C-alpha cells in the first residue's frame, strides 16, 4: 500500500525533480565508510578483508528496531530469534548451534565486551545492552579476525560504537508511543566544553509499556543513561565514560499451539500473537522454605539487570611512527531474573491427575483465587524460575602500533578478570491452559482433607523449590595478540593475525539434599499440616558440601587473508581463520566432578568475498565454509537436568548483502540473505535414558538453511518516505533427531512504515508483523516431549503492533 501510494504520488507531484539525496534516505554510501572492528587501524570498508556490516545512527533511526536482536536481523550470517521480547534473545552465527544466547560472538561497546562471556546461564549479552540515540553506529563482523581481537568469538564481533561530542553543540530528543501502551523518551546531547580540546556527550532513554503480549502488568519499565568526556591534546586523547542501566523486561517463552499438517495454528483459548503464560493472576510466589523463612518472587520484575559501567580510553603518539592505545573498563551487574517456563505441554484434567497418582475420576480442580470448583479442558504445569546473579568484570586492552610505508604492525596484551555467582530457586505451579491463566488446586477426592497426600498443590504450587542451585564461576584471561597489515602492491594487501590465550577458569557448586515441611509446624490453610499435601515432598535444601573445579585453556588462534582492490569500487578477498570458544558455564557445572569430558570448541573457517561499493549501489557476496569440534549442548530441561551432549558440525553457505538507490532516488532497496547447510558430524552416543542415538548427517537444530530480509522504500518527496519490509525464516528442526513432529515451519513477517521530515522534526509510524503471522522461532528446548496428540509447545514472534514517534534534531 505504501509503495503504491508513493508511486502514484510521484507521477502527480511535479515538485519531485531533484537529484539530491532525500533527507530521510536510509544509507550512507559504503564507499565512504571506514570500519574499525576486527582491524588494527581504521580502514575503508572496501579495503577490509572481512565480512562486516555497518549501520550508522541515521540508518538505525530509520529501522527503529524494537530490540538489539531486531537490528541484528539485518546482518547476513546471523540467524536471530527475536521472540523473547526486548531482551533474552538468541543469535546463531554462520550455522553454529548452541543452547542460545550469544555464545559464539562477542557483543561489545566501543571495542570492549559488554560482559566477557555473553552466554552465561540466564545472562544473554543483550540483557545488559540497549540501543538508544547515544549509539553512533554498529559494526557487525562475521568470522574472520574476530578470534584475534576478542575471546570466545569465532562467530564474529558485534560492536556498538557510542557518540562523542564535537565543536558543534548537537542534540536529539525523541518521544514515542504505540498500540501497546508504550511511552518512551530518548535524549542525546553532545558538544564542546572547551573548543578543540574538551568534549562531552550524554544520552539515554526511559520507557514503560504493557508489552505486545498481554501480561496484565507493565511488561517493560526502566531505562539507561550513558555519558562520556573526551580530552584531545596534540599527540592523542583521553576519554572517560559511565553507563547506568536499570530496566525490567518480561521474558516470553513457549506457548501451546495446534499442529495442522506442516503448520502450527492457535491452540483453543490461547491467542498465538498476543497471549502468554506470563500473566498477572499468577505473578506472585510466596512459599515457606525447608530451612526456615519464606521465598517470595514477583513475575512483574521479569529480567531486571542493574548495570554500572565505568571505563577509560587513552591514545598517545610515541613518535617515530609508534603509538599506544589503552582501553579499560569495570562492569558490575546485579540481576534478578524471574520467568515462567512451561514444563511440557498442556494435559487433560484426567491425564494430569493420573500423573500425580490419583486414580480414576477421584480428582477435583478448584481456583486458588476463590475456591470455585472448575473443570478446565486442559491444565498446564509451569515452571516459576527465579535466578539471582551477581557479576563483575574488569578488562584492560593495551595495544602498541607501528606504522611503516607498506602497512602497520599491532601488538597487544588483553587482560580480563570476571566472576559470576548465581542462586536458583525453582518451583512448579498448576494453571489453566489459557492465555490469561489462573492458579489451580488439585485434590484427591478418595481421601479426606486431613489425609496424607490429599492435596497435590499448595496454593497452586505443585513442586515447592524443587531445584535450588548455588554456584560460581570465575575467569582470568591473559592473552597476547599480534596483527600485521602489509600492502604488497597498491591494490593487493595481506593481513595476518595470531592470538595466544592463556586463560584459567574455576568455580564451585554446592550440593543439595531433599526435605519437606511435614515437621515444620506450619499449616497449608491454618488447619492442616503439610502432611496433607505432596507439594513439599521433594524440596531442595543447600548443603555444606562444595565441589570445586579448575580448568585451564591454552590455545592459539590465527587468521590470514588477502584483499585485492580491483579499482576504487570493486574488491575481492579470501580469508582463513582458526579460533575457539572455551567451554560454557553449564558444561563446567554438569561435569565438575570430571572435567575430562569437556574441551574448548575449535573452529576452522574459510571465506572468500566479492564487494562492490558505489554511491548508488552496494553488493557483498561471501561464500564460507566452517567446521567445529567438541561443541557442547547444555539446554537445561524443565525438571532441572541438563542435556550435556557433545558433537561436531560442518557448514557451508553464502552470505549476500546489497543496497540500491534507483530511479533518481525514487526507490531504495536493502537486502541481506543467507543460504547454508549446517550438519552434524560424528554425533552418536547414549542419551540420559540410556538409549543409543545416531544424528550423524542430520541438520543442526533451530538453524534455517535459508533466511533473508528485504526492505524496499519509496521517497515520495524529498521529505516523505514510505517502506515495507519482509523477513523470511526457513524451515528448521527443533531437535537433533530431525523428527517430523518437531519441524518448525518457515514463515514470512512483514513490516511497513512511513516518515515525514519537517525541517528538524521527523514524524514516523512503524508497523511490525502487520499481517499477524504466527511465526515460530524455536520449539521448547527445555521439554523434550513437546506435547501430546497435536499439541506442540513453541515460541512465536510478537503479534502486529504499531509505534509512532516524533524526533527533534538540534
TrEMBL record:
It is a multi-pass membrane protein. It comes from Chryseobacterium tagetis. Residues 45-156 form the TonB-dependent receptor plug domain. Residues 273-769 form the TonB-dependent receptor-like beta-barrel domain. This is TonB-dependent receptor. InterPro entries: Beta-barrel_TonB, Beta-barrel_TonB_sf, Plug_dom, Plug_dom_sf, TonB-dep_rcpt-like. Keywords: Cell outer membrane, Ion transport, Iron, Iron transport, Membrane, Receptor, Signal, TonB box, Transmembrane, Transmembrane beta strand, Transport. It comes from the Bacteria. It is found in: Cell outer membrane. Belongs to the TonB-dependent receptor family.
Amino acid at each position: 500500500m505504501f509503495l503504491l501510494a508513493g508511486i502514484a504520488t510521484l507521477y502527480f507531484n511535479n515538485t519531485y525533480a531533484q537529484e539530491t539525496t532525500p533527507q530521510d534516505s536510509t544509507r550512507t554510501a559504503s564507499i565512504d565508510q571506514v570500519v574499525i572492528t576486527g582491524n588494527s587501524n581504521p580502514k575503508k570498508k572496501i579495503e577490509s578483508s572481512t565480512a562486516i556490516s555497518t549501520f550508522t545512527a541515521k540508518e538505525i533511526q530509520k529501522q527503529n528496531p524494537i530490540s538489539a536482536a531486531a537490528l541484528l536481523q539485518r546482518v547476513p550470517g546471523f540467524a536471530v530469534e527475536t521472540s523473547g521480547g526486548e531482551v533474552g534473545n538468541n543469535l546463531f552465527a554462520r550455522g553454529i548451534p548452541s543452547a542460545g544466547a550469544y555464545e559464539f560472538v562477542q557483543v561489545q561497546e566501543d571495542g570492549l565486551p559488554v560482559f566477557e562471556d555473553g552466554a552465561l546461564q540466564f545472562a544473554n549479552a543483550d540483557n545488559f545492552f540497549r540501543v538508544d540515540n547515544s549509539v553512533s553506529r554498529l559494526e557487525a563482523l562475521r568470522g574472520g579476525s574476530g578470534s584475534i581481537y576478542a575471546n570466545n568469538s569465532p562467530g564474529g564481533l558485534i560492536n556498538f560504537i557510542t557518540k562523542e561530542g564535537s565543536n558543534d553543540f548537537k542534540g536529539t530528543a525523541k518521544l514515542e508511543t504505540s498500540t501497546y501502551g508504550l511511552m518512551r523518551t530518548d535524549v542525546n546531547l553532545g558538544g564542546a566544553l572547551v573548543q578543540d580540546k574538551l568534549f562531552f556527550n550524554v544520552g539515554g532513554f526511559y520507557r514503560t509499556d504493557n508489552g505486545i503480549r498481554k501480561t496484565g502488568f507493565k511488561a517493560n519499565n526502566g531505562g539507561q543513561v550513558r555519558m562520556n568526556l573526551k580530552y584531545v591534546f596534540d599527540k592523542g586523547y583521553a576519554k572517560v565514560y559511565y553507563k547506568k542501566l536499570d530496566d525490567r523486561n518480561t521474558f516470553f517463552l513457549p506457548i501451546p499451539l495446534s499442529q495442522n499438517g506442516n503448520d502450527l495454528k492457535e491452540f483453543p483459548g490461547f491467542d498465538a500473537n498476543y497471549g502468554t503464560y506470563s500473566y498477572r493472576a499468577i505473578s506472585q510466589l510466596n512459599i515457606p522454605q525447608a530451612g526456615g523463612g519464606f521465598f517470595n518472587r514477583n513475575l512483574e520484575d521479569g529480567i531486571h539487570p542493574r548495570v554500572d559501567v565505568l571505563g577509560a580510553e587513552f591514545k598517545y603518539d610515541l613518535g617515530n611512527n609508534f603509538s599506544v592505545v589503552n582501553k579499560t573498563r569495570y562492569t558490575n551487574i546485579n540481576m534478578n531474573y524471574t520467568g515462567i517456563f512451561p514444563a511440557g505441554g498442556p494435559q487433560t484434567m484426567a491425564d494430569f491427575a493420573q500423573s500425580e497418582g490419583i486414580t480414576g475420576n477421584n480428582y477435583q480442580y478448584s481456583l486458588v483465587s476463590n475456591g470455585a470448583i472448575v473443570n478446565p479442558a486442559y491444565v498446564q504445569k509451569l515452571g516459576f524460575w527465579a535466578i539471582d546473579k551477581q557479576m563483575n568484570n574488569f578488562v584492560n586492552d593495551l595495544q602498541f602500533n607501528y606504522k611503516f610505508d607498506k602497512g602497520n604492525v599491532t601488538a597487544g596484551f588483553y587482560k580480563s578478570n570476571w566472576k559470576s555467582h548465581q542462586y536458583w530457586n525453582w518451583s512448579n505451579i498448576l494453571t489453566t491452559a489459557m492465555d490469561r491463566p489462573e492458579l489451580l488446586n488439585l485434590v484427591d477426592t478418595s481421601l479426606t482433607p486431613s489425609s496424607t497426600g490429599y492435596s497435590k498443590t499448595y496454593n497452586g504450587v505443585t513442586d515447592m523449590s524443587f531445584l535450588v542451585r548455588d554456584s560460581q564461576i570465575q575467569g582470568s584471561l591473559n592473552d597476547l595478540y599480534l596483527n600485521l597489515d602489509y600492502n604488497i602492491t597498491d591494490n593487493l594487501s595481506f593481513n595476518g593475525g595470531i592470538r595466544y590465550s592463556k586463560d584459567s577458569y574455576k568455580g564451585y557448586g554446592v550440593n543439595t539434599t531433599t526435605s519437606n515441611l511435614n515437621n515444620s509446624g506450619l499449616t497449608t490453610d491454618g488447619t492442616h499440616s503439610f502432611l496433607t499435601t505432596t507439594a513439599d515432598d521433594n524440596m531442595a535444601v543447600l548443603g555444606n558440601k562444595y565441589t570445586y573445579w579448575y580448568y585451564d585453556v591454552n590455545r592459539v588462534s590465527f587468521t590470514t587473508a588477502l584483499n585485492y582492490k580491483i579499482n576504487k569500487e570493486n574488491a575481492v578477498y579470501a580469508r582463513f581463520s582458526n579460533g575457539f570458544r572455551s567451554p560454557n558455564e553449564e558444561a563446567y557445572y554438569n561435569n565438575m566432578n570430571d572435567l575430562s569430558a569437556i574441551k574448548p570448541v575449535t573452529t576452522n573457517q574459510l571465506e572468500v568475498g566479492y564487494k562492490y561499493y558505489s554511491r548508488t549501489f552496494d553488493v557483498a557476496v561471501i561464500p564460507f565454509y566452517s567446521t567445529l569440534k567438541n561443541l557442547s549442548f547444555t539446554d537445561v530441561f524443565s525438571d532441572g537436568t541438563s542435556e550435556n551432549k557433545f558433537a561436531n558440525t560442518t557448514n557451508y553457505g553464502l552470505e549476500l548483502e546489497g543496497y540500491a538507490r534507483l530511479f533518481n532516488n525514487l526507490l531504495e532497496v536493502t537486502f541481506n540473505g543467507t543460504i547454508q547447510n549446517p550438519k552434524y558430524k560424528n554425533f552418536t552416543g547414549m542419551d540420559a535414558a540410556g538409549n543409543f542415538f545416531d544424528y550423524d548427517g542430520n541438520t543442526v537444530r533451530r538453524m534455517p538453511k535459508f533466511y533473508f530480509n528485504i526492505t524496499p522504500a519509496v521517497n515520495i518527496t524529498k521529505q516523505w518516505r514510505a517502506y515495507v519490509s519482509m523477513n523470511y525464516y526457513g524451515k528448521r528442526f527443533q531437535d537433533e533427531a530431525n523428527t517430523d513432529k518437531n519441524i518448525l515451519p518457515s514463515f514470512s513477517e512483514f513490516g511497513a512504515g512511513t516518515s515525514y521530515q519537517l525541517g528538524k522534526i521527523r514524524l514516523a509510524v512503524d508497523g511490525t508483523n502487520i499481517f499477524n503471522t504466527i511465526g515460530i522461532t524455536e520449539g521448547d528446548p527445555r521439554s523434550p516431549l513437546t506435547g501430546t496428540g497435536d499439541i506442540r509447545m513453541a515460541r512465536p514472534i510478537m503479534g502486529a503492533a504499531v509505534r509512532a514517534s516524533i524526533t527533534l534534531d538540534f
